UniProtKB/TrEMBL annotation:
<dbReference type="InterPro" id="IPR001466">
    <property type="entry name" value="Beta-lactam-related"/>
</dbReference>
<protein>
    <submittedName>
        <fullName>Beta-lactamase family protein</fullName>
    </submittedName>
</protein>
<feature type="domain" description="Beta-lactamase-related">
    <location>
        <begin position="22"/>
        <end position="337"/>
    </location>
</feature>
<dbReference type="InterPro" id="IPR050491">
    <property type="entry name" value="AmpC-like"/>
</dbReference>
<dbReference type="InterPro" id="IPR012338">
    <property type="entry name" value="Beta-lactam/transpept-like"/>
</dbReference>
<dbReference type="Pfam" id="PF00144">
    <property type="entry name" value="Beta-lactamase"/>
</dbReference>
């Protein structure tokens, strides 16, 4: 627990840095361990034009996270005997009679193995050229050349397939999809800031979504819209805090939504995903980060990119939500897992008297900058590390640091191009660290000092350095 908490504390600082460094309008995140919410944080803005600061209560469209809710609902109905995973879509949706998709099984749809077209043959609703498909339009899509590949040939992601599962859930449960998941999943868990579709009555609570910087230096705000018949694939909204509480119901031993038997079925690998690291189960993606197998899902909605990962055995969950169509949510969520791995494997959980030892180490920690960039000295568990916050993987090239004296650390690891074996020499003042010399024997300063200098200095010259 000590190591994990130290990793989470640094994660919040890293998120703040990455939000600015990546030029993302806003980042909202949460981390949960067992039943304890270790972090709920927000950095940046919910609305750039209005200057609205992002908070932990702003709502995000979590898009394909919806598939995890849909898969959970299917497994619930299977446990109740209201449907079977080997039922065909045609058994529940009569309009599919005589079409290729009639033979697709519920399990094939859940695992993206049915060969179904991804978004139909006109997916421009994703660009808001027109509205998302309603039920009638979904029927037309499902009966118009929707069988792109033979079933069970390979993993083939399909929003249309999951939209059909929403209709199947409605038929099997006897109530509309949105009502079923609201009552049997959201309400059961007491998730007050989660729902299956855009709620116009809460319009002021949503973080504004923005376009990408890939094609313009200016981000354009994007309207929130109803996803209609595709809610089961991409309609949900939530907060990071609610999302980690939701996925905690998928930890083993938690029976609020599903039995452990159903969770094992949902979480086992159905497919290896070609061209990407990882696998896919029934509504959940699987990936190994270091030696840790985590599950979860991402979400891409016009203006919002989101990612959630969880370890059902160690009962750890992280969710990162961003309000830009190019937001690095996946990179940031994976960063937490990597930091926890490093903290647990190398930082350790601490010893008796750890509080005093940690306080002694904490005096060395901070974010320091030179003309060349930024480094962090971080305590993870009861060890210090030199990390580079600009890296997508904050643990890449992590260098352990050993205490050599009251003012000196030694670099005891890291990459070969670094300063292995050399020292970091600290100058302390009344308010903490004033400067650090080390790493090519250059002098770094607390980042606030370099930031202030960069905002006022017209040119860096010999005798007029950035400091």
């Amino acid at each position: 627990m000590t190591a994990v908490k130290s990793a989470v504390a640094y994660f919040d600082s890293w998120l703040a840095f990455r939000q600015r460094y990546s030029r993302v309008p806003g980042v909202q995140a949460a981390v949960l361990l067992d039943d304890e919410l270790l972090l709920s944080t927000a950095h940046g803005q919910a609305d750039i034009g209005a200057g609205t600061r992002l908070t932990t209560r702003h709502l995000f469209r979590i898009a394909s996270h919806s598939k995890t809710f849909t898969a959970t609902a299917v497994l619930q109905l299977a446990e109740l005997g209201k449907l079977r995973l080997d039922d065909t879509a045609g058994q529940w949706l009569s309009y599919l009679d005589g079409t290729p998709l009639a033979a697709a099984t519920i399990r094939e749809l859940l695992g993206h193995g049915a060969g179904v077209v991804r978004d139909g043959h006109d997916g421009d609703f994703w660009q808001l050229y027109h509205a998302f498909p309603d039920d009638d339009t979904l029927r037309k899509i499902a009966t118009d050349r929707a069988d792109v590949l033979p079933a069970n040939e390979r993993f083939k992601y399909s929003n249309i397939g999951y939209s059909l599962l929403g209709q199947i859930i409605a038929a099997a449960s006897g109530m509309p999809y949105n009502r079923y998941v609201s009552e049997q999943i959201v309400a059961r868990l007491g998730l007050e800031d989660t729902g299956p579709e855009y709620d116009p009555s809460r319009a002021d609570e949503y973080a504004t979504g923005y376009s990408a910087l890939a094609y313009s230096d200016r981000r354009v705000p994007i309207d929130h819209v109803d996803t209609a018949a595709m809610a089961a694939a991409t309609g949900f909204y939530s907060t990071a805090e609610d999302v980690v509480r939701y996925v905690s119901a998928h930890f083993f031993g938690d029976t609020r939504l599903l039995s452990d038997a159903s969770k094992r079925l949902m979480q086992r690998a159905e497919w290896t995903v070609k061209g990407a690291d990882g696998e896919y189960g029934l509504g959940l993606a699987r990936v190994e980060i270091g030696d840790r197998l985590v599950l979860g899902h991402g979400g891409g909605y016009p203006g919002h990119i989101t990612k959630t990962l969880f370890d059902p055995h160690d009962r750890l969950a992280v969710s990162v939500l961003t309000n830009a169509i190019d937001g690095p949510a996946e990179t940031l969520a994976a960063g937490l897992v990597r930091l926890v791995n490093l903290a647990v494997e190398q930082g350790g959980e601490g010893r008796a008297g750890d509080g005093r030892e940690s306080a002694g180490l904490d005096r060395f920690t901070g974010r320091f900058a030179t003309l060349w960039g930024v480094v962090d000295v971080v305590r993870l568990g009861h060890k210090l590390f030199l990390l580079r916050p600009t890296s997508d993987d904050p643990t890449q090239g992590a260098a352990p640091l050993t205490v050599e004296g009251d003012h000196t650390l030694r670099i005891a690891g890291g990459i070969g191009y670094g300063s292995f074996g050399e020292t970091l020499e600290y100058v302390f003042g009344d308010h903490g660290v004033e400067s650090v010399r080390g790493g090519s024997a250059t002098t770094s300063y607390p980042i606030e000092r370099i930031t202030a200098a960069a905002e006022t200095l017209e040119r860096v010259s010999v005798g007029t350095p950035l400091r």
